[in-house]
Amino acid sequence: MINLIPPELRTSLKYARKNTMLRRWAISLMMILVLMTITIISGLVYLRQTSSSLAKQIEASKSGLQIQNQESVQKNVEDLSSTLKLVVQVLSREVLFSKLLKQVGSVMPKGSILTTLSINQLSGGLDLQAKASDYQTATQVQLNLQDPKSLLFEKVDIVNIQCQTSVSVDPIASKYPCTIQLRALFNKTNPFLFIGNTGSTP
Length: 202
Description:
Blueprint: H1 7-92, H2 94-107, E1 112-119, E2 125-132, H3 135-146, E3 153-163, H4 171-175, E4 178-186
Antiparallel strand pairs: 1-2, 2-4, 3-4
């Protein structure tokens, strides 16, 4: 087949085909660039939103931790304040406590000795333990402590009385074989009161 198209036209057609192909490539590259641009912008927007969300979460966590820390510190301060108040209260009335011990000792009947005295509450009374030469003297300890004239206790209950029947090598246990445990409730007008109830002071 003989090509009768003039050389100039043939060249024009050749470049026209190349231009068409180049145009298609250019359009494809532009579409790819547009898609890449959209992807990059979307990624940046997502990263910014994620960063903002994380920043808010971190701030909320910090606020929560700060509130928890404040509550913990406040509780510790309150506990310390209560302890200090109790210490000040006891120390400021230490002399009254020594006078209370002296008064308890003075009402103990003959043949008995006070061995232990402890506070069982912040207000109200004491736990006492005494030794006595016999059972009758042990019960007399309770009566003397509860005597209104002693100005000490409103009520004294016997918790336990134990008397040893065997001879002990301990001289104190040998002389005072009976042990009595008592629980005493302070008299509200006790002038020797140092914790709890209010009363007149000597």
